[in-house]
What does this fold into?
Amino acid sequence: MRIDLHCHSTASDGTDTPAELVRNAAAAGLDVVALTDHDTTRGHAEALGALPAGLTLVTGAELSCQTDGVSMHLLAYLFDPEEPALLAERELVRDDRVPRARGMVARLNALGVPVTWEQVERIAAGGSVGRPHIASALVELGVVPTVSDAFTEEWLADGGRAYVAKHETDPFEAIRLVKGAGGVCVFAHPAAAKRGRTVPESRIAELAEAGLDGIEVDHMDHDPDARDRLRALAKETGLLVTGSSDYHGSRKTVALGAYTTDPEVYGEITRRATGAFPVPGAGGA
It folds into this structure.
C-alpha cells in the first residue's frame, strides 16, 4: 500500500480542488490519501463525492498551534468534525487568518512591496487564507523567485520583517480537543528548521506523555540527520512514525506520494480513531 497522510487543497492553500486532489492521488498510484487543510474541513465533502474506486480517503485537518512562542502544526486525523469544542477552536483560528493576512499585506506595503489585498484574495480563491497565498503574490510581483524563497526572515518567516502573528492553539489543549473528538494527533514536520524556530525534543516528549500519537518523520523539509534523530526520539517516547508529501499542488515542487507512511502505522492510526473512519472510494463523479 502507498499511503500519503498530509495533503492540501484549495480549501486552504493548495492549488488542486478537493476533487482534483483525490483524482490526482489515484493517478499517482496512491492507495490512501489524507486531506489535511489548514484549520478547516471544508474540502471533505467535495473530496468524498469525487473519490475514485481503489482510493481511500482519510479526513483530517492541520491545526495551527504554538508553544513557548514557537509555531507548530498538528495533523489531526479521523476526528468528528461537528464535535462542538474542537469546531469552535478551529473557527477561532480560521477567523483570525484574514486580519492577520491583511496585516502582512500592510507590512509589505510599508516595505515598498506593491502587493494588494485584492491580489491575495484572488490567489486564495475562497480558501483559508495563509502565508503561502501572500508568498504567491510576491512571486507574481517578481519579489522572490519561488514560494519557498518568501519564507525567510527578510519576508514571511516567523519573526520576519512582514510577519504578523495569529491566534494559535496551545498544543496540549489541541491534543485534548482532538482526542475529545475521537481523533488521532501527529506532529507535522517537527524539524523543519528553515520555516523558523522548532520545538525542542524535550517538549515533544511532554506532548507524547499528554497523548500525542506520532511525529511526521519522512518529509521534504527533513534532511537525513533530522530523520534519524526523530526516529530515535519516536522510539524513546513510543510515538508512531509517519511520512507524507505535504502536497500543495503547483505551489510546491513535491509530488503526491513522494513520502509515505508504513501500512502498519496507518493501521494503528485507524485503530485508535473513534470520531470518523477512512472512506473507501466507490468511483466518484
About this structure: Residues 138 and 144 are 6 Å apart (CA to CA). The chain has eleven helices and eight strands.
